[in-house]
Amino acid sequence: MLPVAQPATSSPTSDFGPSTPAGVLTLAAGETLFQEGDPRLHVYRVETGSICLFKQRADGTLDVIEFAFPGDLVGLGYLDKHVTGAQATLATTLSRLPRSDIQPATSQPASARARLTAAIEREVAFLNEAPQASKLSPLPLERIAALFVTLSRCNAYEGRDPLLITDSMNCGVVAGYLDLSLADLARHLKELEALGLVAAAGPNLRLADLEALERLADGAG
Question: What is the Cα gyration radius of the chain?
Fold first, then answer.
């Protein structure tokens, strides 16, 4: 990945002045659209210009992930906070869309589906890195809940049962994502089952209380 210059100081998306038309954002070159850890409130469609998605290193330099161009969607994902930053590479206008307006993947063009898949992969990687990151609690139950909530939203987006985690996500895969041993994962799943949050469904796992899992993932217990 190539480092890019530190982004210029910018206002949060909620701070755009009243002169900005509702649903339309205009960014100057180098202005930040959102940063890692910001709440994910909207999805953006690039109308003109270009947006760079990046991850920030500990030394302050940035690793470029990808560029979005007119017609591309930015801000896709299922976690409630962004796991990358985004800044304009030149003067850019974007349409701001509520997250709820994004339709199932079957109704989206291939480019949008590819971007969503990439966004989900970044979120799963972020969950895997959570013990070393401060933006997500390292407590195992909260990390497991966050992964299940992410998978649930992915299922709903793609037209599958949002409450069913299939056996294709076997224990070894989940344990690998969350940097847990199989024994620790089994113990924590029993804790979640005892709390009434998950239940066995044959070879699969059913999310028995999605709202409670969302609160746990957010650290609210």
Answer: 18
pLDDT digits (tens, 9 = 90+) for 46-60: 999 888 888 877 777
| CA 2 – CA 46 distance, rounded (Å) | 23
DSSP 39: B
Overall pTM surpassing 0.85 (yes/no): no
CA distance 143 to 7: 30
Contacts of 62 by beta carbon, 8 Å cutoff, 6+ apart: 3, 4, 5, 6, 7, 54, 55, 56, 85
The CATH class given to the 137-217 domain equals mainly alpha
pLDDT at 43 over 60: yes
Helices first, then strands: H and E counts in the chain: 5, 12
Domain ranges of the chain: 3-104, 137-217
